[in-house]
């Protein structure tokens, strides 16, 4: 099986790369021959195999908008002339490329991720491309995978296209080294937390506005950045207030776990995706979650069983933060029950089982 459309392995930068690590390693241990196509410029060292996974390094045009598309296109050309039985592609942007494996008779699967055509970072031509690409994905690939029940419904509503729902996995964790947060002069329960890229899609600007309007004396720790020069991200980081702490990327997974474990509350503003990896971490690491009220977040928090919601306006965030400050016992209860929200569909072994069944069924059809 070949995996195309991520930055590669074992490079872990975002949800798709984590997905490749968790599912790819499990399938390799089960005897699958896994090949991952990697962005050549990201890898100074280029071993041929890591943990039983074969790696192919493909060049790309290194720009924000073209790196993924050019890498995926060249990877798809390469895989069409390989002995791979099944092609797995990540990201709906790669929808048009599904025509290539179809022409050579290779079964193919695409995981379409979120509502890319609605994301604020894609405007005009970009949004149009993503919508067309998402529709073509439903035509060219043998199977479309959506990662949440609500996203599955949306693909039926928008494109009249059935899909297979296989969620993203989470790894529950009971404890971490609380001393690691001292590097930011933080103490347990002294801060709220945001984790995610500094892009408009995640509404971090709205959360900051609402938070600063609240009466809390706790800090707001913002973990994340963007790997390019960006006016929105820079504007966020230029906000001068002692209650805001921008850490940038936290690549030390032990330190990141400590930040999750010791926050008073986790604020989640992601709007356009399905099953969100940062939310799964917040559940698995025992956070009290305050989330934007979307159909995806309602699904993940089971209609409020494992978190509270705010609307997409600063006053709603302000009011919810002020309320959270007055009910520390209820916030503690949310933290103590949070891990129970990682139900079976978010278990990596179960997720891998589902993909294994899907890939084997496609091989038998081929």
TrEMBL record:
One of its GO terms (molecular function) is glycosyltransferase activity. It is an enzyme of class 2 (transferase). Residues 188-339 form the Glycosyl transferase family domain. SUPFAM superfamilies: UDP-Glycosyltransferase/glycogen phosphorylase. InterPro entries: Glyco_trans_1 (IPR001296), Glyco_trans_4-like_N (IPR028098), Glycosyltransferase_grp1 (IPR050194). Its EC number is 2.4.1.-. It holds the Pfam family Glycos_transf_1. Keywords: Glycosyltransferase, Transferase. Residues 14-163 form the Glycosyltransferase subfamily 4-like N-terminal domain. This is Alpha-D-GlcNAc alpha-1,2-L-rhamnosyltransferase. The lineage of its organism: Bacteria, Pseudomonadati, Bacteroidota, Cytophagia, Cytophagales.
